[in-house]
Design a protein that fits this description.
Blueprint (H helix, E strand, L loop, with lengths): L8 E7 L5 H10 L6 E8 L6 H7 L4 E5 L5 H5 L2 H4 E2 L3 E5 L3 E3 L3 H11 L4 E8 L6 E3 L2 E3 L5 E3 L15 E2 L7 E5 H6 L12 H11 L4 E11 L13 H16 L2 H24 L3 H15 L2 H14 L4 H4 L8 H19 L1 H10 L5 H23 L1 H5 L14 H10 L14 H12 L4 H24 L6 H12 L1 H9 L2 H21 L16 H20 L2 H20 L5 H18 L14 H5 L11 H5 L14 H6 L1 H5 L2 H25 L10 H25 L8 H16 L1 H6 L12 H4 L2 H4 L3 H4 L3 E6 L9 E4 L2 E7 L17 H12 L6 H5 L4 E7 L19 H8 L4 E4 L5 E6 L18 H37 L27 E2 L4
Parallel strand pairs: 1-2, 1-5, 2-3, 4-20, 7-13, 14-17
Antiparallel strand pairs: 5-12, 6-13, 7-8, 7-12, 9-10, 11-13, 14-16, 15-16, 17-19, 18-19
Length: 997
């Protein structure tokens, strides 16, 4: 091919202070057999001019120096204003070496395949017989997916020309007209991801991307091989992948993928927090902050994509990888590392036996990983039937309606919650509705996810609470203790969803209160801020947002948070640091006010006239079967932890009081006082001293469990720190004894895990009583209501307390669903039903059916156990209703007892008919316009609170970055290995005509 026939190609090499590999790159370009090639070197503000190095190797190349470098892509864009008449651009890293025929073969393939972008075969720099990359796949989140195994021997097994989604950075041939049409590289993507974004936009514009295996290019990958540092590589990668997603998708598909990506990001944040990599979690969140702060620029970028789009998303998305590589790239290095360790196991074992100097620091990571894997295995094995099977309708395991139904209930007000007064709905409806949308409407899966997430968040929260007070293993010990306390698994066995949410949230609440105290090691730099300062207000705001989210599901959390603050202040008095207790109380009060505002107008229902305390605290159970103090301290409110081993963790938690020193002893005292003080609440409730609250014993026990687990972790920290240099004595013996107790405390939960369900019944009321919804046909379902009466622990929903041991609840259309978890504090018209039932109990009426008929009550269900009892199949703990209730119901002339199975007594109201249901059943209530105004105010408050917290996190991230970075920080680098250096004077040069020599 002659020079006149060959289309002009301009090779663009972007470099900034390159290493010794730079000359080899230029030599490879100078040795090309392509006749119409020009080379443009972009000096991206190198500290020392590259002109002498370029002149020595490639005197015919052109040099363009820019005074400010914003990364590889923006620097490479200068070719559009510098070069005229080029047909093709070849973008190169400064650490690649091209085979002499590489450009010719790539150009030939571009015309043969009618491709807009061509990628070569990238080989290892030192071992050219090994493959690095052969084109790139991409998943739907914009993450790169390898097409060949890294380091695989090249035996021509991949030498077929293939169409790929993207050309990897390093060496990429792009048609000049296509490059100009799509606007070149994204100017906001400095490093990492610019190659995928460019090819994605080229795809949308209708161009093909192919790989030409006949073109060989060796790539040093100086950044990946650590020859060029890049401390922010992963952060930039997440940031730019998210930017590509936010601007390259169409509107509806973008909303869908962003929702999935948000869930994945939250999972990543939880994973990184669990393994102690907080900086990684901050980087994931920073990617969202960085992109959302550039919304105006994103709108312009989306408009540019729309202007050049020729293909719809459905065609382009067919080329995406079917697996999510963003998850796989975390797992894959661990698997590869495990394979390497396995292959060298005998050598490592021999070295371990011969080397007695191996430090505990070197052995600890393996022990930590092993412990985490064992704990996960126990939890997964113990929950296997729950995770893979059907959740029965018992306790609070109620089916969750569709997301559109939940959002409509929140935005439009609660119109029929079992005859209660119409009024505002809990923000939990909105939270569950959004979660249902994220899960694509799979609300059946949402309940299982909620149970699993509660356990995980509780363990992560307690580890985060204790971690500042000791070595890295401290948080792990506390998390294991928290997981192996019987409380959570008894909550699962009883289907107590609200107690599990309290279990998940209380460690985080205690952590916020600990930070509010300003005491070491929780105090920020410079000590606690004045409460009237911006930082003090932010503390109240952060605590308030957390309590508002938890309180939307468990209203009792607000009062528990205030009780925790008071107990911590009391613990500070015992520990000799009383002056900080007032600060904790003030921050807690401020957080309660913020939570009240964020839950407005629903929060007003708890202070309205006629509100019942039992809705907030739970209806009290039968005083004769109330658990004693010993049962409460063992957390034995279920099938697990009833024996003597239930005391094991309580004994282990006392170790910090015996051997702890300094901050560990001070916080151990605070948490012991807090745990014991808060244990008095469930004891008082179980004894009936509070009038109600016996039904929420597991909720009330959550802060005590968190304090006990934290003290167990502190005890392990005290052994590692305070006893490491002490002589042998009784303290060491106490440490051994308490450690043995902690190990013994694992046994009850280990034994309970063998069943696979933690004692949760297999069959619920959805199997025993489904006919209550279908007996009348669809036309009468709306007028059919079921009145549930009995012991509060037996009702499949929270109820209003009549007397201790007896509660009432109403469901519409048959069995209850999850919307019944948050009844109004004021029963409204339901108060009349309660009075009618009390009249039947006392024998004042024998026509209870006629009294209930106008309210639509067709069936009365009286459970006698906490779950349906099926002879020979399933037994359940008995929860008998008061005998006076049964006598009163059987004496009614218009109630007919139906034959039933499952251990529940069922009465049909003979006076019921669909036409007798009166409009009075809906009662009066809050005006619609007032509810809508309250919801709008609450949404505005949420937006303001979350924005303030995001801005605070952004300021903290910038302060941390400024504290870590020196005055001249090392510049980030990308797979294309571009460097950013301090600005240098810009030297203007004339345009370079393509093909000039």
């Amino acid at each position: 091919m002659s020079e006149d026939q060959a289309p002009p190609v301009v090779a663009v090499v972007v470099a900034s202070d390159p290493g010794p590999w730079f000359e080899a790159c230029l030599e490879g370009l100078a040795a090309q057999d392509y006749p119409n090639l020009s080379t443009l070197v972009v000096d991206a503000a190198s500290a020392t001019s590259l002109a002498p190095r370029v002149a020595a190797v490639a005197p015919g190349a052109y040099l363009r120096r820019v005074g400010e470098s914003r990364g590889y892509g923006p620097s490479a864009n200068i070719v559009m204003e510098t070069v005229e008449g080029a047909a093709l651009y070849l973008f190169c890293h400064d650490d690649v070496v091209l085979a002499p025929d590489a450009i010719r073969r790539m150009v030939e393939e571009a015309f043969r395949s009618n491709a807009g972008v061509v990628a070569p075969k990238l080989l290892d720099y030192e071992e050219p017989e090994r493959l690095l990359q052969l084109g790139l796949g991409v998943d739907r989140f914009g993450a790169p997916v390898r097409r060949v195994e890294r380091g695989e021997f090249d035996r021509a097994q991949h030498d077929a020309v293939r169409e790929v989604f993207a050309a990897p950075g390093g060496c990429t041939l792009v048609r000049a007209d296509l490059f100009a049409t799509i606007g070149g590289f994204d100017p906001e993507i400095s490093l990492f991801g610019e190659d995928i974004d460019l090819c994605w936009r080229a795809r949308l514009a209708g161009a093909r991307v192919v790989v030409a295996p006949a073109a060989h290019v060796r790539h040093l990958e100086a950044t990946a091989s650590r020859q060029r540092p890049c401390p922010e590589a992963r952060s930039l990668q997440w940031r730019h992948e998210l930017r590509a997603v936010l601007k390259n998708y169409g509107s509806w598909r973008r909303a869908l993928v962003v929702a999935q990506l948000l869930v994945l990001s939250l999972a990543e944040v939880g994973y990184f927090l669990a393994i102690g990599k907080r900086w990684r979690a901050r980087q994931v969140l920073d990617a969202w902050r960085w992109n959302l702060s550039r919304e105006r620029d994103l709108k312009g970028a989306r408009a540019a994509v729309v202007a050049t789009r020729r293909l719809p998303d459905r065609l382009v998305c067919r080329l995406f990888s079917h697996r999510t590589f963003r998850v796989w790239r975390f797992v894959r290095p661990a698997l590869e590392d495990a394979a390497v360790r396995w292959s060298r196991s005998r050598h490592e074992l021999a070295g371990a036996l011969s080397s007695a100097g191996t430090s505990r620091q070197e052995r600890r990571p393996r022990a930590v990983v092993l412990a985490v894997l064992v704990v996960i295995l126990v939890i997964v094995v113990g929950s296997r039937s729950i995770l893979s099977g059907h959740l029965p309708l018992v306790g609070q395991l109620l089916p969750i309606p569709g997301p559109e139904h939940l959002l409509a209930r929140y935005l439009g007000g609660w119109q029929d919650a079992g005859l209660q007064r119409p009024g505002p709905a809990s923000p939990a409806f909105a939270i569950l509705g959004i979660a249902g949308i994220v899960l694509f409407g799979a609300t059946g899966l949402l309940l299982t996810v909620e149970l699993a997430l509660a356990v995980v968040l509780g363990a992560v929260g307690i580890a985060r609470l204790v971690r500042p007070l000791g070595p890295p293993g401290t948080g792990l010990v506390a998390a294991v203790a928290y997981l192996f306390l019987p409380l959570a698994w008894n909550d699962v066995a009883r289907g107590d969803v609200q107690a599990l949410i309290a279990y998940a949230g209380m460690p985080w609440v205690l952590g916020r209160l600990a930070r509010a105290s300003g005491l070491a090691p929780f105090s920020p730099a410079g000590g606690p801020a004045p409460l009237r300062s911006r930082r003090g207000i932010e503390e109240c705001l952060a605590l308030g947002v957390l309590v508002a989210v938890l309180g939307a599901f468990v209203p009792m959390i607000v009062l528990l948070m205030l009780a925790c603050a008071l107990a911590l202040a009391l613990g500070g008095v015992v520990a000799g640091e009383a002056r900080r207790g007032l600060r904790v109380l003030v921050v807690a009060a401020g957080g309660a006010v913020v939570a009240f505002v964020l839950c407005f107008p629903w929060s007003l229902t708890f202070v309205q006239p006629g509100a019942r305390w039992s809705v907030l605290s739970g209806a009290a159970g039968n005083p004769t079967s109330a658990p004693g103090l010993a049962t409460l301290l063992r957390f034995g409110l279920g099938p697990t932890g009833r024996g003597i081993l239930g005391w094991a963790f309580l004994v282990a938690a006392a170790l910090v009081l015996l051997v702890g020193r300094s901050e560990r002893l001070a916080w151990g005292i605070r948490w012991w006082v807090c745990g014991l003080a808060l244990a008095a609440l469930p004891f008082a409730a179980s004894e009936g001293w509070l009038g109600a609250g016996g039904g929420a014993l597991r909720v009330l026990l959550a802060p005590t469990a968190a304090c006990i687990a934290a003290c167990v972790g502190l005890g392990a920290s005290a052994i590692a720190v305070d006893l490491s240099h002490a002589g042998f004595g009784w303290r060491q013996l106490a440490g051994v004894a308490c450690g043995a107790c902690a190990l013994a405390g694992l046994l009850p939960v280990l034994g309970a895990s063998l069943g696979g369900r933690w004692g949760l019944p297999d069959t619920g009321y959805d199997v025993v009583l489904p006919w209550t919804a279908s007996a009348s046909g669809p036309s009468e379902a709306a007028a059919t209501r079921v009145l549930w009466l009995g012991d509060p622990t037996a009702l499949p929903m929270p109820g209003w307390q009549l007397v201790p041991g007896l509660a009432a609840g109403v469901s519409s259309g048959g069995l209850p669903d999850a919307t019944r978890l948050w009844p109004s504090a004021n029963p409204g018209v339901g108060t009349a039903l309660i009075r009618d039932v009390e009249s039947a109990e006392s024998g004042l009426t024998v026509r209870l059916g006629h009294l209930l008929a106008p309210s639509g009550i067709r069936y009365l269900v009286v459970p006698t156990a906490i779950a349906p009892e099926l002879p020979g199949t399933q037994t359940a703990q008995a929860a008998p209703p008061p005998q006076v209730l049964l006598d009163g119901l059987t004496a009614q002339s218009d109630l007919h007892q139906l034959p039933s199975e499952g251990g529940a007594l069922i009465f049909e109201n003979a006076a019921w008919s669909a036409g007798h249901v009166t409009a009075a059943a809906t009662g009066g209530g809050t005006p619609g316009w007032l509810r809508e105004l309250g919801v709008a105010a609450a949404l505005a408050a949420w937006a303001a609170a979350l924005t303030a917290l995001a801005l605070r996190e952004g300021r903290r991230s910038r302060r941390r970055a400024g504290h870590r970075s020196p005055s001249r920080a090392p510049s980030p680098a990308a797979p294309i290995d571009a460097l950013v250096s301090p600005p240098a004077p810009e030297r203007a040069e004339p345009a370079i005509p393509a093909g000039a020599t």
